[in-house]
Amino acid sequence: MNTWIVTGGAGFIGSNFVRQALAATSNRLVVFDALTYAGHLESIEGLLGDDRVRFVRGDIADRDAVRALFSEHQPRAVVNFAAESHVDRSIDGPGDFVRTNVNGTFELLEAARALFLTWSEADRDAFRFLHVSTDEVYGSLGESGAFREDTPYAPNSPYSATKASADHLVRAWRETYGLPTLITNCSNNYGPYQFPEKLIPLMIMNAVEGKDLPIYGDGGNIRDWLFVTDHCNAILAVLQKGRVGEKYNVGGNSERTNLQVVDALCAALEAVLPAASNVALQAKGHRAYQDLKTFVKDRPGHDRRYAIDASKIHRELGFQPQHPFESGLRATVRWYLDNGDWTAAVTKGKYDRGRLGHAARA
C-alpha cells in the first residue's frame, strides 16, 4: 500500500482531497496539519476511523517535525495544500505567510530530497511532489485574456507573492536536484468545509443571520470559480498522469463578478430558505436577502480580474470540471445550512466575521 502525505489535509481543499483520494485510490493517507484557525479536526473527524487515514499534528516550517514525518512514513507522494491563504490576512500580517508558504515549502522540499537520495532508481521514478498553488501568482488581467501556464508571474499581494516564491522553489528543486515535482495553479475554490472568512461562506452565514453582505469597491472584481471536488479530481489526475516537471492551470470556466456571486447566492438562499420565513432577516426589517448588500471600501491592491486557460490539463489529462457554478453554489448553500455545528465549532473564539485587511497604504 503506497503512502501519500497530504499537508494541510485538515483545511478546506485538503480535507476534500482526502475524501476524494480515499474513494478513488487504495493508498494510505497521512494528514499533516498544524490546526491553525483554518485547519480543523472537525473537517476530517469522520475519516479518522478509516485504517488508511493517519493524522499527525505538525507545522511544515518545523524542520524536525517534517523530517521525522518523512522518515517514518516513507511517502511515495507528497501533496502540499498547507498554506496561509487569505489575502486580507496577508495584508494585516505578511510574516506568517512568508514563514508557512515560503519557509514551509522549502522544508518540505528538503525533506523530500533527503529521502529521495536514499531510494533506488525505481522508487525515485515512482515518487511525486505536487505543490498546490493559485492563479493569483500571475497578477491581474484586463478585460480580456486568460492566464496560461507560461504567463509571467506578477503577484500583487503578500499572499500571492509568497505562493509565487514557493512555486519558484518547487521548480528549482526539479531543475537543480531532479526531484519529481508538479505544480497546479487553481482559480477560486468554493464548496463544503471552507472557513467562513472567504466570500461565499461568509455571505451565506451573514445572510442567514440577517447581517450585512459587505461587497468590496464596486463589486466588479472578477474571479473564475471552481467547485472544490472538481479541483480535487484535477489534482488526482495531475498526480497520477501529469508529466514530471510540468505545471497545470485548473479553472472552473465560471467567471463572475463579486456582485454576480452575491446575487446568485441570494437567489440560491431564497430557494431553500425563503426570506419570508427567515426570522432573523425579518427581525432586521428586511424582506429580501438582496436588501443586505452593502458596498464597503475596497481592499488595498485588489486585483481586478482573474481568468484561467485550462486547455492544457484538458488536452493532456482529459480533465473537465463537472459542476456548473449555479448547481455548485446551490450545493454549497445547502451544506452550510445543514452543518451549522461545524461552522460554530471552527469559528468559536477564532473569527467573528469582522473585516480583515485594513492596513493602510504608505
Structural description of this entry:
The protein has 362 residues and is α/β, with parallel strands linked by helices. The chain has a domain at 3-193 and 227-251 and 302-323: NAD(P)-binding Rossmann-like Domain (Rossmann fold). Helices cover 42% and strands 16% of the residues. Strand 1, helix 1 and strand 2 (28-33) form a beta-alpha-beta unit. The mean pLDDT is 95.
Question: Summarize this, please?
Answer:
This protein is an alpha/beta fold. The protein contains 13 helices and twelve strands.
Weakly predicted, low-confidence segments: none
Portion of residues in helices?
40-55%
Rounded average pLDDT: 95
- Order of the strands making up the biggest sheet: 3-2-1-4-5-6-10
Main attributes of the structure:
seven-stranded parallel sheet, 12 strands, alpha/beta, single chain, globular, three-stranded mixed sheet
Topology summary:
Elements: E1 3-7, H1 12-24, E2 28-33, E3 53-57, H2 63-73, E4 77-80, H3 87-92, H4 94-116, H5 121-126, E5 128-134, H6 158-177, E6 181-186, E7 188-190, H7 199-208, E8 213-216, E9 222-227, H8 228-241, E10 247-250, E11 255-257, H9 258-272, H10 279-283, E12 293-296, H11 311-317, H12 325-338, H13 340-347
Parallel strand pairs: 1-2, 1-4, 2-3, 4-5, 5-6, 6-10, 7-9, 8-12
Antiparallel strand pairs: 9-11
Helix pairs in contact: 1-8, 2-4, 4-6, 7-9, 7-12, 9-12
